[in-house]
Design goal:
Blueprint lengths: L13 E4 L2 H8 L8 E4 L9 H13 L2 E4 L13 H14 L4 E4 L2 E3 L3 E6 L5 H18 L4 E3 L13 H12 L2 E5 H10 L4 H6 L6 E6 L2 E5 L2 E4 L7 H14 L4 E3 L8 H21 L2 H6 L2
Parallel strand pairs: 1-2, 1-12, 2-3, 3-4, 4-7, 7-8, 8-9, 9-12
Antiparallel strand pairs: 5-6, 10-11
């Protein structure tokens, strides 16, 4: 078990992705079970009027992190530095505690509206790491990149795990560890999910994602964020805590969003899993992790 973190983790506890459908029911009553929120900054940057005021009311009261959609860190097109400058203003204005993005790309001459896999090559490692370093320079903060789900690996020369580890090291950035994506990829590409997870550097983890996926076939999963979290993901989350400690964990739900009370069932499962981790530790280790 590796629980010594070189990077300071921005949040703790159990979090929820804040979607617009949830603003009204949560605005005046945030359940105590939710420790922090996450948003896609592109959906809230420059937003005025009622929604802008409501969002400001949230960020003034609760810890927030962000998970970007359009940075396109692996794109052949130049980085959108004007977007990054506006993003920095947004992050600073709202006191956002972390910015994360997908280790993928979604644009060239225009946006592709999908997350495309970056080739697993040494050349791509250097290319992506250079771009991440430039992003961190503009934003004046370390960012975290997420291990993404993918359905093909064009031009692969090195393993997926080596690609991610090398990018993290060369860019000197953090990791947003998505537990669901590991389960999806392990089934689709036939590898051991637990072995893969334990090969990730625990000392670079900012926080975890969990989400639901769609079972297309026995050997095919589709990452949808539109259903309840599977039992395979819950089981791997326990492994993730064993590897990294009781890292903050965020529930993603982007489609078929149920009532808040139903989301709280899964939020409480996160909290229960974190409590179980603490219960397994010696007294002095429990104290060090609060």
């Amino acid at each position: 078990m590796n629980i010594t973190h070189r990077f300071e983790q921005p949040v703790s506890g159990a979090g929820l992705g804040l979607r617009r459908e949830l603003v009204k029911p949560l605005l005046h009553h945030k359940p105590d079970e939710i420790s922090f929120f996450e948003v896609a900054p592109e959906n809230w940057m420059g937003l005025g009027g009622r929604l802008g005021k409501e969002f400001r009311a949230f960020t003034e009261r609760y810890p927030f992190v962000t998970h970007g959609l359009s940075l396109s860190i692996g794109s052949p097109a130049p980085l959108d530095e004007e977007f990054l400058k506006k993003l920095k203003v947004f992050l600073d204005h709202h006191g956002i505690l972390a910015y994360t993005e997908h280790l993928s790309y979604c644009s060239d001459d225009g946006h592709l509206y999908d997350l495309m896999p970056i080739p697993f090559t040494d050349e791509a490692v250097s290319y992506v790491a250079n771009r991440i370093r430039r992003v961190q320079e503009i934003l004046e903060r370390r960012i975290a990149i997420e291990n993404v789900s993918y359905y093909a690996a064009p031009g692969q020369e090195i393993s997926e795990i080596d690609f991610i580890r090398n990018v993290l090291e060369e860019a000197d950035c953090g990791l947003l560890l998505d537990v669901n994506n590991i389960v999806v990829n392990s089934i689709n590409h036939d590898y051991d999910a637990e072995q893969y997870l334990r090969a990730l550097p625990a000392d670079r983890v900012f926080y975890f994602h969990i989400a639901g996926h769609y079972v297309e076939a026995e050997d095919l999963r589709v990452d949808t964020h539109g259903s309840d979290v599977s039992e395979q993901v819950w089981a791997l989350l326990d492994t993730a805590y064993d590897h990294c400690g009781p890292v903050a964990t965020l529930l993603e739900r982007d489609f078929n969003i149920p009532a808040v009370d139903d989301l709280l069932i899964e939020i409480n499962r996160i909290r229960d899993a974190q409590t179980r981790w603490h219960a397994r530790q010696p007294q002095n280790m429990r104290a060090s992790h609060g």
